[in-house]
## 1
Amino acid sequence: MNLQNTKLFISAGEIRQFPSHPVPQIALSGRSNVGKSSLINTVLARKSLARVSGAPGKTITINFYDVDGKLFLVDLPGYGFAKRPPADKAKWSALTDGFFTANKNIDRLALVLQLIDLKVGPTADDVMMLRYLAEAELPFAVIATKADKLNKTERAAALARLADHPDIPTDTPIIPFSSLKGEGKEEVWRIISRFTGVKA
């Protein structure tokens, strides 16, 4: 697969804009500022394909990245940003909920990458999302971002807490990730390949 042949296909602000291409989709879910844009740039070996926002909670679109015509990386808007106006929160909720419940192509969703800040651990919003994914029986993996911010002992303890978390099933892949060091990039592609059959 040619990762250089990747582009932002559409920033969808409405459900009707979701693309209907017959390719697998990998959705990225997580709170604002957890590192979704950084992960996209890292796994696609691009510096600024996905904009890393200095103002968390700014994006209220679902961004579909076309990866060599073989799959879509779907960047869901970040949740949990307290300073967002109520109208924006309502729009986020309707759009994100629509992706899962009113999406004509939901059968093409192969996997959700649930990003959780390894240092912070699962927030209340993260737990709500984890429970939703489990109840909806959507396959997901946990990407433990910003892993470089912890020392060896802290990291081991934080990963153990994730592995023992009641809302993360025991067979859920948990991948430590650092966009700064590139750690976890290959593991992310391995899990994507496992669920889509598409090789990086």
## 2
Amino acid sequence: MNQRSATAEDETFLYEVYAGTRRNEVAEWGFGTREIELFLQMQHRARQASYSAAYPDAVCRVIYAADKPIGSLQVYYGSESIVLIDIALLPEARGKGVGSAVLLELQQKAAQLGLPVMLHVDNANVLARKLYGKLGFKETMADEIYTEMRWEPPAGRAT
């Protein structure tokens, strides 16, 4: 599994990754195919604008496996913490350990920097919450929609 910086040419792929996380949910709302795609495109643009406004210096990466793009990762490297803004995989890439591997790499980088990793996860995303817990993330706050989680590097590991 490899990663590279996302470019403007990746926009269609990044949309497909996002849509792959929401298409089944939105299809249950009774929209037609065209309406689903228009809604998802609008949501993708709004989400990207929100992320850019909140984290203008964030890094967006494309995740690869066997030279095929399979997901995306957005991370903000702050002076006090690393923020995992978003990680998403195409449906066919899920459940194969890719997400775990990406998160473990991020935790290793955080440990080298001596920084915690922060994230927000949708409360309905039970599988992601379970994975984060398995990797040592602890819940720090929650509301009706999202749970904030934090991972602390082991003491004495900063370089």
## 3
Amino acid sequence: MRWTNLGEHTVYENPWLRVNLADVELPDGRHLDHYVIRQRPVALATVVNDADEVLLLWRHRFITGTWSYELAAGVVEDGEEPADAAAREMLEETGWRPGPLRELMMVEPQHGLTDARH
């Protein structure tokens, strides 16, 4: 049961994301308009010490009105390697300069709405 994207056009754009409207054909032949958020890749990092303690940020996010623990994260700049972006964000957000980084995973947290890769 595959949905087919027959084309899309941009309805909003800024340096971090683009909102497109896609013409999608469903398996039964019906069409629907579907909003798609196109985002630049994001790199995340944390520091784990010898006691297996993890460095997290405690932040308030106005969008949800909540406080939460987060990993240091940010957009991967053009031409930048994800590991370099993760190290840069760790330094900017925590003051810690991480040692060697290794990739643990890649996730697409809302793949029904956005192509954001973290």
